[in-house]
Specification:
Blueprint: E1 2-7, H1 12-27, E2 35-40, E3 52-53, H2 54-60, H3 65-81, E4 93-94, H4 98-109, H5 113-127, H6 134-143, H7 148-156, H8 161-173, E5 181-184, E6 188-191, H9 196-210, E7 226-228, E8 231-233
Parallel strand pairs: 1-2
Antiparallel strand pairs: 1-5, 3-4, 5-6, 7-8
């Protein structure tokens, strides 16, 4: 089963869903047969490169500090309840994530996509780390053991820019208006954040649809002539006297 997960590293619900996906897969009996593919979707591409605080961003949209607390504190509480001990939603800086997504696409080509996506969520929400400039992203990549010179060349050449754009366009074509957005076998869609149990149920539904269980044969009509190993006989309509 192919599970495609569109997200942005500054989306707090996406960080939660990355964790819930891990928890759901731990409980899913066919987890070894699930291919998880992370895809890019930038929710605030127009933010300044130096970044803005979460509180400033909300104020720009007319949301008061009190209302911000009401909206975002429950996300932090949910993260803590699900094992993410530190999860900064209110006290952090947000910036444009195009360079981060290009690094993630590069890491995916190196076979380390899922690992680096999760590490980036942990870095941003766990440590409130800024990953908006090429230098910030390059330092992060080097810490994870990606070759610094090769990564620097990839970022400077913008080698994965077109792929990042194409990912977002595909999500929008499928009906996504934001993140997180998940599809299962290109047949089922989960727009927005859902709980671990709901995610597991969706995975089970998709798996069963793709792997239907054999049904017992239904007998139609009445018994007629039959053949056995020793020959054929026609079923008698009347008992032998």
């Amino acid at each position: 089963m192919k599970l495609e997960f569109w997200s942005d590293i500054i989306c707090p619900y996406c960080g939660l869903m990355d964790n819930r996906l891990r928890l759901a897969l731990e409980r899913f009996e066919h987890a070894d047969d699930v291919q998880v593919v992370h895809r890019s979707f930038q929710v605030h591409p127009g933010l300044p490169r130096e970044g803005v605080t979460q509180r400033q961003l909300l104020e720009m949209h007319g949301i008061s500090p009190a209302r911000a607390e009401q909206l975002l504190a429950p996300i932090e509480a949910a993260a803590h309840a699900e094992g993410l001990e530190t999860y900064h939603v209110l006290e952090r800086t947000l910036g444009p994530t195009n360079h981060a997504h290009e690094l993630l696409a590069f890491a995916t080509d190196k076979g380390r996509g899922n690992e680096v996506w999760t590490a980036m969520f942990h870095a941003h929400f766990g440590s409130a780390r800024n990953l908006w400039t090429q230098d910030q992203v390059l330092d992060f990549a080097a810490e994870l053991g990606l070759n610094r010179e090769e990564t620097d060349r990839v970022l400077r050449e913008r080698r994965y820019r077109a792929q990042v754009v194409a990912d977002q366009r595909e999500a929008e074509r499928l009906g996504a208006h934001g993140t997180p957005f998940i599809t299962l076998d290109a047949t089922y869609a989960i727009p927005g954040a859902v709980g671990t149990d709901e995610l597991l149920a969706a995975m089970t539904t998709a798996w069963k649809a793709a792997h239907p269980e054999p049904q017992p044969m239904q007998i139609l009509g009445q018994a007629g002539g039959t053949c056995a190993q020793d020959g054929c006989a026609v079923a008698s309509r009347h008992p032998t006297p």
